[in-house]
Amino acid sequence: MLRTVQFLILSVVLSVAMIHHAGWVVAAGESAYFEDDSLETLFTGGVLTEGAAAAPDGTIYFSDITFTRTAGMQAGHIMKYDPKTGEVSVYRSPSGMSNGIKFDARGNMIVAEGADFGGRRVTRTDMKTGKSVIIGNFYNGRQFNAPNDISIDLKGRIYFSDPRYVGHEPMEQGVMAVYRIDPDGSIHQIITDAGKPNGVCVSPDQKTLYVVSNDNGNFDIFQFSQDLPFHKGRMALLAYDLSPEGTATFRKTLVDYYPQDGPDGLVVDAEGNLYVAVRDQTRPGIYVYSPEGKELDYLRTPDLPTNVGFGRGKESKTLYITSGDKLQRVRTKKAGYHLPSQ
């Protein structure tokens, strides 16, 4: 009898030790993707942080989306974090309600500016001079809905999503789509069947464009009381075949999250694995997927995450996470993917 009891206790202990992430059983501390589950908070006190991205010098830039109806008509901020000093400061304010941020191969900052008194455009900033130019604000003579997230390929083509989650401005585009800006300045609507596109990411081999659909069922979260029901649309991580010419054709749904909320932003590591910020209230966090959509790892976050971005240089195995009002980071075992510098 004693042996039986001891065996049962030992079994329970081992079972607890083996449950590293809900839904997956791996030995505790043996994650292949995260050094540990410790999230370090670097900044707090924002309204909604978004779009963490590393500049060529290693500085981390991120957006603070200051919804005008809740934050006293602030018009958004771009913040910067210096990994060397640990200091966080305001880089640009107002930001045009910046959301997604990326850096091109020349080190220019590319920013998706949303609605709610924002720019509803895509801009490029020369980080040496600080001067910015508008590289996309109209398609077919009509202004964008609310540019959200950005990815850039090896040919310098910029891909961005154009949904709408908040804003009083009229929606002029007939569909929430994904667009491509070519180096010659021309703008092309390349995806119209993603639902409500949010996060976008080009794979390291340049053959896949990953697109998140996060369709919450309305176009302005502040126009309605929180107890009103809405019919959610597609909540999914999608894969599109990306041609050498920059066109995209739907290939498959990698992960279907419905009826829970789906992801927001995502990035890839140097091996092509996806790190996805998933806003499922029952299991919020950073999910690691293979290119085929198999869940490889999971890191729980205390808040609903919005986006992720890898550091550079000595910080290339650091994943920066925007979540709630915070900027956080976690150490990874894989280096992040970045465009080669030109």
Q: What does the main sheet amount to?
A: 4 strands, antiparallel
Gap from first CA to last CA = 71 Å
Low-confidence stretches: 1-28
Average the pLDDT over all residues and give the rounded result: 91
Strand order of the largest sheet: 1-26-25-24
Strand and helix map with partners:
Elements: H1 2-18, E1 40-43, E2 49-54, E3 60-64, E4 77-81, E5 88-92, E6 98-103, E7 109-113, E8 121-125, E9 132-136, E10 138-139, E11 142-143, E12 150-152, E13 158-162, E14 177-181, E15 187-191, E16 197-202, E17 208-214, E18 235-242, E19 248-256, E20 263-268, E21 274-278, E22 285-289, E23 295-300, E24 305-310, E25 318-323, E26 326-331
Please name the defining characteristics of this protein.
mainly beta; 1 helix; globular; 4-stranded antiparallel sheet; disordered N terminus; about 350 residues
What is this entry, summarized?
By secondary structure, the chain is mainly beta. Helices cover 5% and strands 40% of the residues.
